[in-house]
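Is flavin mononucleotide placement plausible here? Inputs below.
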Amino acid sequence: MQGEGTLPMVLAVSGASGQPLAQRALQLLLEAGETVELITSRGAITVWQAELGIQVPGDPEAQEQFWRERTGVGSGTLRCHRWNDQAAPIASGSHRTRGMVILPCSMGAVGRIAAGVATDLLERAADVHLKEARPLVICPRELPWSLVHLRNLTALAEAGARIAPPVPAWYHQPRSIEEMVDFLVIRTLDLLGYEVGELRRWQGPVGQPG
Ligand SMILES: Cc1cc2nc3c(=O)[nH]c(=O)nc-3n(C[C@H](O)[C@H](O)[C@H](O)COP(=O)(O)O)c2cc1C
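Reply from A.M.:
I modeled the complex. C-alpha cells:
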C-alpha cells in the first residue's frame, strides 16, 4: 500500500550535461532514507559514458546494484527502471508519487514533454505528473537557449512545471565544485520539500557598506 509518508520520488536523468548532479541527488535522497524511482534515459547513458567514463547498466537489477556500489549508500529504497519501460508502475497516474525531478533535463526531452509526446518512460512519467497536477521540477541544461527552447519551457511552466535550471550561486561562497554541486542539488530538492542537507539560505549581507 502506498502510504502518504512513504510516497516515492521520481528522479529522472536525461542526456544533458551535468550527470554528477544526478548522482549527488540520488546519493543524498538515499542517505536521507527516501524512496527513489530512478529513470535514466537512453541519452543519459551515453552522457554518463562521455562525462565520467562509466557504463550504466540497462537492466534494472544490475543498475540498482551499480548505483548502490557507486554511491556507497545502503539506506533508502531504490527502484531502477529501463529507459523504455512504458509499462512500469510510474507510467500510470494511478501509481502515487510525491513528485518528479528531471535533473539534468535535455532540451530534446523538454520539447517532447512540452508537445505531449512520450517516446520513453521519462517523458511518459513527466506527462503523468503534469496531468495529475503533481509537482514536476525540470532542470534544463543548455547554453544558450534558443527561442524554441524558451517557448517549450514557457509551455511547461504554464502547464504547472517548475523550471529550475542548474545555475550556480556564489552568495554561499562555495570553495569547491563539490560545494557548488551540493548547493544546486539541495536547492533543487528543496523545491519538492526535501531536506537532504544543509542549505545555506540567504540571511542578508554580513557587513553593510560604510
Ligand atoms: C556529452 C554530451 C553532452 C550533452 N549535453 C547536452 C546538454 O547539456 N543539453 C542538451 O539539451 N543536450 C545535450 N546533449 C545532447 C543530448 O544527449 C541528446 O539530444 C539526446 O538525444 C537526449 O536524449 P534524452 O532526451 O532521451 O535524454 C549532450 C550529448 C552528449 C553526448
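Short version: The longest strand covers residues 99-105.
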